[in-house]
Write a structure and sequence with these properties.
alpha+beta; 1 helix
Length: 71
């Protein structure tokens, strides 16, 4: 339904020795396109369901979605 355009992940970050309570983190970026090969678009409701059913469960600590627009 929605193609995965790219995936990047950075390894654990080092905790700053001057920052009490710091802990290593992991960051992942998933980029999705909403255009179909036939020129149509994936409806926002279909993408929202895909996100809720397939992506969100894999990030139990939560995630942030940014909408972008390319040219």
């Amino acid at each position: 339904m929605v193609g995965l355009l790219g995936f990047g992940a950075a390894g654990p970050a080092r905790a700053d020795p001057l920052c009490d309570g710091a802990r290593p983190t992991l960051s992942a970026q998933l980029l999705f396109g909403l255009s179909r090969p036939d020129g149509g678009r994936v409806p926002s409701g279909a993408f929202d369901r895909f996100l809720a059913e397939r992506i969100t469960p894999r990030f139990p600590d939560g995630l942030t979605v940014f909408a972008g627009r390319g040219q």
